[in-house]
Amino acid sequence: MEATIEVAGLRKRFGATTALDGMSFTVGAGQVTGFVGPNGAGKSTTMRVVLGLDAADAGHAHVGGRPYRELRKPLAHVGSLLDAGALQPSRSARNHLLWLAHSQGFPATRVDEVIEISGLASVARRRAGGFSLGMRQRLGIAAALLGDPPVLMLDEPFNGMDPEGIVWMRTFLRQKAREGRAVLVSSHLMSELQDTADHLVVVGRGRVIADTTVADLITAASGDRVTLRTTARTPAMTALAGAGATVATTGSDTLTVDGLPAASVITVLNENAIAFTEVSAHRASLEEAYMELTREAVEFRAGEQA
Ligand SMILES: Nc1ncnc2c1ncn2[C@@H]1O[C@H](COP(=O)(O)OP(=O)(O)OP(=O)(O)O)[C@@H](O)[C@H]1O
């Protein structure tokens, strides 16, 4: 089966609320795709529609080229984590997984494998009801892996995880992508996705705002801003301004140069025999790039509430 999720033209209203307004994107194999956007942007609703838990008013959602309801043994096609709290609290983690495995025809040996992969071996016989949110997330991951599916779809898997858990989750997601799986992960926090996601689908108000590689998004948000360290501040300012840059003093030996790429800044300095100790291109964080993109969607919501 193809490792893909395809969402096309999804529309969904809840009473007066438009949750999805033409949501369209594709999640490809072999990469981690971050699914990000402000509260209420439609991420969970999209995932619920993909899994057939909500019906769309229009459009379609396919996993591996087929609607979820047409998949036989769905857990062997797509593993999902939507609500880590959705478990029977009195059951042990292992029994919860055994029950799920049994209902889908997977062997008990697979249960022990996913317990190991998700780092739950030491607590597998404890009541799941007593688990922290981070441990519940791991249990959700274990359940998602039962059918060894080519597609994983995880809603806020970093929620409630401690720093060690976050590092574990990042490594896990990267590994699943390396194995050729399609991995869709929703998150509010860009810092969680930095160094994890290859691709980003940024959404706001029920539709896609940007569908891009992380590298391109950061390059676009970084612009031509360069930090320059030199003791020859005044001649540097004159030479760079003459080359069309906007130059500001940001420290006793530091200038911020806008409008010229780092390579051109170095050329201008060399041509004018101006010594420098540092020329570094500004690299926007994923957080900065995302804030820039979603500002409009957030303002729209704030305006609605006013
Ligand atoms: N069952 C429901 N009944 C009524 N409104 C709903 C329902 N589910 C979602 N909504 C509304 O649809 C919109 C999209 O919600 P959704 O949960 O999909 O967004 P989200 O991007 O996942 O948000 P968050 O980041 O806060 O989880 C919101 O305005 C939400 O209030």
Automatic annotation (TrEMBL):
<dbReference type="InterPro" id="IPR017871">
    <property type="entry name" value="ABC_transporter-like_CS"/>
</dbReference>
<dbReference type="Pfam" id="PF00005">
    <property type="entry name" value="ABC_tran"/>
</dbReference>
<dbReference type="GO" id="GO:0016887">
    <property type="term" value="F:ATP hydrolysis activity"/>
</dbReference>
<dbReference type="InterPro" id="IPR003439">
    <property type="entry name" value="ABC_transporter-like_ATP-bd"/>
</dbReference>
<feature type="domain" description="ABC transporter">
    <location>
        <begin position="5"/>
        <end position="230"/>
    </location>
</feature>
<dbReference type="InterPro" id="IPR003593">
    <property type="entry name" value="AAA+_ATPase"/>
</dbReference>
<dbReference type="GO" id="GO:0005524">
    <property type="term" value="F:ATP binding"/>
</dbReference>
<keyword id="KW-0813">Transport</keyword>
<keyword id="KW-0547">Nucleotide-binding</keyword>
<keyword id="KW-0067">ATP-binding</keyword>
<protein>
    <submittedName>
        <fullName>ABC-2 type transport system ATP-binding protein</fullName>
    </submittedName>
</protein>
<comment type="similarity">
    <text>Belongs to the ABC transporter superfamily.</text>
</comment>
<dbReference type="InterPro" id="IPR027417">
    <property type="entry name" value="P-loop_NTPase"/>
</dbReference>
